């Protein structure tokens, strides 16, 4: 069972701390679709929060589309995007909403038995045409206030898929989709609800990407000596903020947490000169190394550098490859 921790003297409201920690558990698949969230009573005992506060957090998670409440049963993580069975809304599907799911299951069964896509094409033309179009337009959509998260996804997707990937601000997504007849929109599970709301009327598929769970890095931070300084460097300001909340939950004020984006030279230099450990995403690692080299004459002991190889979970990459016909 995941242990949620609330830092009572933090400037971040307790409800926000819990909301971010649960959302991280969902986004990293520690709480997969269909998982039943702890009761408000159990979570109150674990965190020390009032049950009304926890109920408020659960309502917010439901309003944002992360969970769904089943009367008399509990709160469950909601299946989202592609995994939830969303498909092009043709008139046939409106009359028979399970039709596409039946088609896809049959196609996957044919493929598992050795049937090629070309052989199955005559039966499943719409689905297979989409899968075979490796040049299909792939869009990464994120809010404009955290374009760094999108840059990180584009960086990793282009390396993994070997095709161009376009970054689009969520606020501009509707206008972009108005100008295309086919596209695949991908986004972090953090943003899936808002992106689906924009893409659904456009008959465009949305696939949520699970994020890496950072277990190895978190286990290291759990055993760091008190009063150590930890630097977090990421293209995404949102990731940096989430990391700060989670680390406060783990260690309270025992560790000093400093965050920066690689383009912020002033903050990056401050981290390099002060931190004992610096954790960086793959796209930012070269900037961190360069900053360390620049500051070598001013520091007694260089910080330990930890490179996080992935932001997107491996299973999500494999799913996207399959959907694009690249696997």
Fold and architecture overview:
The chain contains 15 helices and ten strands. 45% of the residues lie in helices and 14% in strands. It has three domains: 14-77, Orthogonal Bundle (Arc Repressor Mutant, subunit A), CATH 1.10.10; 81-212 and 314-323, Rossmann fold; 215-308, Rossmann fold, CATH 3.40.50.
CATH domain class name of the largest domain: Alpha Beta
Structure class: alpha/beta
Arithmetic mean pLDDT? 85
The domain tally reads 3
Largest sheet: 4 strands, parallel
Write down the CATH topology of the largest domain. Answer: Rossmann fold
- Give the ordered list of helices and strands: HHHEEHHHHEHEHEHEHEHEHEHEH
What is the terminal-to-terminal distance? 34 Å
How large is the share of residues in beta strands?
Answer: 5-15%
**Could you list the spans in which at least 5 consecutive residues all have pLDDT below 50?**
84-94, 130-135
- Radius of gyration, in Å, reads 22 Å
The CATH homologous superfamily of the largest domain corresponds to: Response regulator
- Main-sheet strand order equals 4-3-5-6
Q: How many beta-strand elements?
A: 10
- Looking at the structure, what is the overall shape? globular
Helix content: 40-55%
Q: What's the CATH architecture of the largest domain?
A: 3-Layer(aba) Sandwich
Number of helical segments with 4 or more residues: 15
């Amino acid at each position: 069972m995941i242990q949620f921790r609330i830092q009572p003297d933090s400037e971040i409201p307790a409800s926000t701390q819990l909301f971010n920690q649960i959302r991280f558990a969902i986004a990293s698949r520690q709480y997969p679709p269909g998982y039943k969230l702890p009761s408000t009573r159990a979570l109150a005992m674990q965190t020390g929060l009032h049950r009304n506060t926890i109920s408020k957090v659960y309502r917010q998670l439901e309003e944002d589309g992360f969970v769904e409440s089943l009367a008399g049963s509990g709160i469950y993580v909601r299946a989202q995007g592609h995994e939830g069975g969303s498909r092009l809304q043709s008139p046939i599907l409106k009359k028979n909403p399970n039709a596409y799911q039946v088609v896809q299951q049959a196609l996957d069964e044919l493929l598992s038995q050795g049937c090629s896509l070309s052989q199955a094409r005559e039966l499943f033309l719409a689905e297979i045409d989409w899968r075979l179009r490796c040049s299909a337009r792939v869009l990464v959509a994120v809010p404009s206030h955290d374009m760094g998260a999108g840059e990180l996804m584009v960086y990793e997707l282009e390396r993994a898929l070997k095709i161009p990937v376009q970054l689009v601000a969520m606020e501009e997504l509707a206008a972009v989709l108005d100008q295309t007849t086919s596209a695949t929109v991908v986004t972090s599970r953090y943003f899936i609800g808002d992106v689906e709301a924009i893409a659904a009327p456009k008959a465009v598929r949305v696939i949520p990407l699970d994020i890496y769970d950072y277990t190895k890095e978190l286990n290291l931070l759990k055993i760091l000596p008190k009063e150590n300084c930890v630097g977090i460097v990421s293209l995404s300001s949102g990731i940096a903020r989430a990391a700060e909340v989670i680390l406060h939950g783990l260690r309270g004020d025992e560790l000093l947490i400093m965050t920066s984006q690689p383009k912020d030279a002033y903050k990056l230099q401050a981290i390099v000169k002060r931190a004992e450990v610096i954790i960086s995403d793959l796209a930012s690692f070269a900037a961190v190394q360069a900053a360390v080299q620049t500051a070598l004459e001013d520091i007694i002991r260089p910080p330990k550098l930890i490179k996080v190889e992935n932001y997107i979970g491996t299973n999500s990459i494999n799913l996207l490859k399959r959907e694009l016909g690249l696997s």
